[in-house]
């Protein structure tokens, strides 16, 4: 029985249930929750708990929180939200895109040691342990500081056995370089998930990624660059081509973020990008897939079996 680190302690991979593989309880900046909490709006913890209570009622059992240190990770908040909502939360270690200039020159081995400690001992000042690794690159490609982080994540993967999620930019086919780096580091690509892959409808490129052995995170719904319908059309095309066992749909949704004042001085109530929030899959995407002829067994593959296999490595 493989155990996965959640923010409330180890859980069996067999108990993950219906899993969303790329979401965020909060996205901000490192330390913002403690230093400038009013920017997140009133009662942020209570609002996040309620958000996940609704997700649990709607059938979401587990959520992978892809919030790294530089995205404002607040591990005790995640633990409290998980306990009070009943949703399992698996948090990541690694790095997103914001490498401050004073860290330029830090080595991959130095960062790997830090990520390993997050996994084996817990995030500093807590006993909350990471259950997944993350690295990233975007429109500018794999910059030298981001290459250091990718290699650090690869080395932490070898030391801990955890899988790797990769923030990527599919329009620029950035994963070609990211995958090359992970290959150079000797990573088994079946333990790698290339995220934000439904920001393109280029199935030739997506099948190339899949043919390397990687999973695809089809995790931006409803998204901005491609319509929700075309995202689902692309997902269905990959299912029809025999790749259902390595596809992970999700939203890249957010409960808490900085609320930005409108020109008239009023404030928004929340940062949600869709009215269903973490239930958009349940209310919109799954019914559309079923209407396209996708079976309930394949739906279970996407949301239950694939997350379990990816996270456990089994």
Q: Which segments are poorly predicted (pLDDT under 50) over 5 or more consecutive residues?
A: none
- The spatial strand order of the largest sheet comes to 10-9-8-7-6-5-4-3-11
For the record, the CATH architecture stands as: Alpha-Beta Barrel
Number of domains: 1
Q: State the total count of DSSP E strands.
A: 11
Number of helices, where a helix is a run of at least 4 consecutive DSSP H or I residues = 10
Instruction: List SSEs in N-to-C order.
Output: EEEHHEHEHEHEHEHEHEEHH
Give helix % range.
25-40%
- The radius of gyration is 18 Å
Name the quaternary structure: single chain
According to CATH, the homologous superfamily is Metal-dependent hydrolases
Please state the overall shape, judged from the principal axes of the Cα atoms.
globular
Please outline the major beta sheet.
9 strands, parallel
In terms of topology, how is this protein built?
Blueprint: E1 3-6, E2 9-12, E3 19-26, H1 32-35, H2 44-57, E4 62-65, H3 75-85, E5 88-94, H4 108-120, E6 132-136, H5 144-160, E7 164-167, H6 175-184, E8 192-195, H7 203-211, E9 215-218, H8 228-240, E10 247-249, E11 254-256, H9 280-291, H10 296-312
Parallel strand pairs: 3-4, 3-11, 4-5, 5-6, 6-7, 7-8, 8-9, 9-10
Antiparallel strand pairs: 1-2
Helix pairs in contact: 2-3, 4-5
């Amino acid at each position: 029985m493989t155990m996965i680190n959640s923010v409330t302690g180890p859980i069996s991979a067999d108990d993950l249930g219906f899993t969303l593989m790329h979401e965020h309880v909060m996205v901000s900046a490192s330390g913002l929750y403690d230093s400038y909490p009013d920017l997140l709006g009133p009662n942020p913890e209570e609002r996040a708990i309620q958000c996940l209570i609704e997700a649990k009622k709607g059938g979401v059992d587990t959520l992978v929180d892809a919030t790294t240190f530089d995205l404002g990770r607040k591990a005790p908040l995640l633990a409290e939200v998980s306990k009070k909502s009943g949703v399992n939360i698996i948090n990541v270690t690694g790095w997103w895109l914001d490498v401050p200039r004073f860290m330029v020159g830090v080595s991959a081995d130095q960062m790997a040691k830090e990520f390993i400690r997050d996994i084996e001992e817990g995030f500093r000042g807590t006993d909350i342990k990471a259950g997944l690794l993350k690295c990233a690159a975007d429109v500018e490609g794999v910059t030298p500081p981001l290459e250091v982080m990718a290699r650090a994540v690869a080395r932490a993967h070898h030391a801990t056995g955890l899988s790797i999620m990769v923030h990527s930019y599919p329009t620029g086919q950035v994963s070609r370089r990211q995958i090359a780096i992970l290959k150079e580091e000797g990573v088994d690509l079946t333990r790698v998930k290339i995220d934000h892959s439904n920001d393109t409808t280029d199935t030739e490129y997506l099948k190339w990624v899949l043919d390397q052995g990687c999973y695809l995170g089809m995790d931006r719904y409803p998204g901005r660059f491609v319509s929700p319908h075309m995202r689902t059309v692309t997902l269905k095309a990959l299912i029809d081509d025999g790749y259902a066992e390595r596809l992970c749909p999700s939203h890249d949704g957010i409960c808490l973020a900085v609320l930005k004042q409108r020109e008239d001085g009023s404030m928004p109530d929340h940062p949600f990008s869709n009215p269903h929030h973490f239930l958009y899959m349940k209310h919109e995407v799954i019914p559309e897939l079923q209407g396209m002829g996708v079976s309930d067994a394949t739906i279970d593959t996407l949301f239950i079996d694939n997350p379990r296999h990816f996270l456990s490595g089994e």
